[in-house]
Queue: 3 jobs
Job 1
Amino acid sequence: MQTSDLRIALFSGNYNYVRDGANQALNRLVGYLLRQGAHVRVYSPTTNTPAFPPTGELVSVPSMAIPNRPEYRMPLSLSSSLKRDLAAFAPNIMHISSPDRVARQAAKWARDRQMPVLASVHTRFETYFRYYNMSFLEPLVEAWLRKLYRKCDALVAPSESMAQVLRQQRMNYDIDIWSRGVDREIFDPSRRDMAWRRKHGIEDDVPAIGFLGRLVMEKGLDVFSDTIDQLHRRNIRHQVLVIGEGPARHWFESRLPDAAFVGFQGGADLARAVASMDILFNPSVTETFGNVTLEAMACGLPVVAAKATGSQSLVEDNRSGRLITPGAIAQYAEALRLYCEDPALRALHGKAGEQRSLDYSWDAINQAVADTYLRLIRQRSVRGS
């Protein structure tokens, strides 16, 4: 059996209606699989105003807007029409990418037909509740996730550090790595644009500390802004550049009144904005990989990040950036101070990060997922014979 023999039913909670790193990785995977001759059918909630066109065939799943977060949608049920569509497509493997109700029903549909199920883990859902004063729910959510993931044939995680967390949580013990890549034709230090910086009020000789990502509280916006307050108190020369949009933008702007907010950027515009920073500051602990960290490294920036899954697999402490205990405001501020005041250190660590980013080729990374599909189908065939 080879990649072209694959028939993959992929269930996503958000394939293209809101842009984020997880759904962009899924779309890139589907594009690669289709180029290899595989057949893929994607099932996801949809809207009339998607963030970008979907890659491949997309079937709409009944859904409703999530209360207090209406930009996201909650899949409701694996309806009879969806089951008929699945049966007509006749997949030989099921891939679920979010632990929602419909994904669970789809996984059961596959298991009832002796079909292997792969789950990809894109974010640490259990940690989200810390940012909404509901951390007491974290053990319950972890147990709820474990119930699903233990029933899957295997998991794929974006980094070895995340795979280790999943093993420690006893989610599954068959875990492969589906890393993330970076487009080096776009993300490169040569994209730095001093005129663009000046247009947004950033002086040439002042280091720009950047934030990149959706503006939601679970990205560590409170830690970021508290750390910047420390730099102000210590009279450290710097400016802040924020790239991204989201429901917490107004709150973030109120905490960072002197920052340059440039909104959502994509493609070459994003690469220009990232390369025009001097330091990326990423305090989030919810990512399982950290696409933004890799993009910044490819642009030759040192990264100050939380010592957590994601960045921990990319950043080498004291060589390409700093890894700081999550929430340690004073330590974050000290790491940023050193980079702000020492341009030679910025350049040295930025160059090391750029070199590290060369290891991430998208085609090789996505073939690893195809190889996992093929392995699970072979193993299920042997068990069934």
Note: The two ends are 16 Å apart (CA to CA).
Job 2
Amino acid sequence: METSLAPPQPRWNVIAFTLVLHVAALLALVPANFSWSAIAVAVLLHWLTIGCGISLGFHRLATHRSFKVPKFLEYFFILCGTLAAQGAVKGWVGYHRLHHLHADQTGDPHNSSEGFWWSHIGWLMHTVPARAELDRYTKDIAGDPFYEFCHRYYIELQLVLAVVLFAIGGMPFVVWGIFVRLFVGFHATCFVNSACHVWGYRTHAVDDTSTNCWWVALLTFGEGWHNNHHAFQSSARYGWRWWELDLVWHTVQLLEALGLATQVKAAQPSRSAVNSR
């Protein structure tokens, strides 16, 4: 089904939020806001929200159903992803499914053929035509009370986290644990949509421009092996070569060893499917 081609309109609330976040992140340059403990909190929360939340929870679990975990654990990962503040969960899942359905073509919400800026951040700031398709592609999670709660209150949950961090460590914890962490996490995930369709290498012949980009993989705990993912979309494993570090995949392996992850999909690509670099 073709999506509407109505021209995108600015989403001023998203534009304002993005501008405020980028300015607020500069507070980290104020000497009074520096502390090693605050940086440690930011790193820990980056792992929980981007690694466990976005990569494992929103992406490999909710979007692609690459494995199953008990509901309480699924909800924990969805909560972690919600605290990344990258939009409401149903929108994140729906847009990503549409990306795979129309990769680099009309209908892809962050179509890389529209340019680096658009695929990185511009599409988020506009009401892209694909938005009309979201309900259709998120029926499996719509109606789940916890998903609906996270979808509705993802901003409020971020404010609660900010209050908790302030109570524990004052303004440095808020600056690093909220502003800097959201800034880094936001761009790290956006680089998967932009940089991983421009720079890097292609291991698999797929009908899009996806690439494997090592530095994006480091920032996102494995998401940067994007060409591998596009070749085997349902696989929970993104890093295939020994040096393609994929910490989220190793986390899934640990969960499987503990009996907490079942029906784990990990495709084994044949040599014939791999191009020479």
Note: The first helix runs from residue 12 to 25.
Job 3
Amino acid sequence: MADLPEFALEACSPYFREAKGDFVPRKEFGYSWRVNGSSIEMHIADYLAGAPDLVLIDFCDMVCRRAVGRRCPSPDSYLDYVRSDKYIVDNRPTYIRRSRNLARTACGRTAYLHDSVQRLLDSGLILDSDISNSYMSWTRRNNVQRVGFCSTMFRVVGISSRLDSDDIPDMVRDYVVYHECLHLRQGYRPGRRVHDAQFRSWERSFPGWKEAEGVLRRLGAA
């Protein structure tokens, strides 16, 4: 762990007499704070340890505003930074290393995830821009309750290895991959609903989505 730099902690002076904080290793990006009277202690995921000065200053200011009960959106400097290709490329290897459930390969025993991606591209359901600078892998565990996940910050998609089986139709795999690619299309947008009306509209454009959902429900029940 490393302490937050003094120039970043100075952003807390309008709200607290004393401030301290550090960068902590976490799998997912996040932050927390503890207020004790007129002092605040912050813990920020170490993915921001290399951020430019302005990003750290604005981020600490945001945390302090929220700590005193003020509504404060994520600052533009922070969003621009973490949405940049450089940030993603620099920090994604750490995220993947900390994601113990990722098999770190898109090539399974019976299915190759990028075959699903190619079919989705060929059908026009997704575009190259949706999946640019992304990483896709099977999971180690064959989860049937959560068959896919997406880290929009690091643009990582994980698909349950339970779908890497001859008893799963390509259409079902494609649907799950499509769902996660839609999250990539949305991008990182903290504080906003993930499965909003726009997302559901995109999702329902997949031919046979009802059938795919039925297979997944039966799989979970089994």
Note: The beta strands are 2-3, 18-24, 31-36, 39-45, 135-138, 148-151, 156-159.
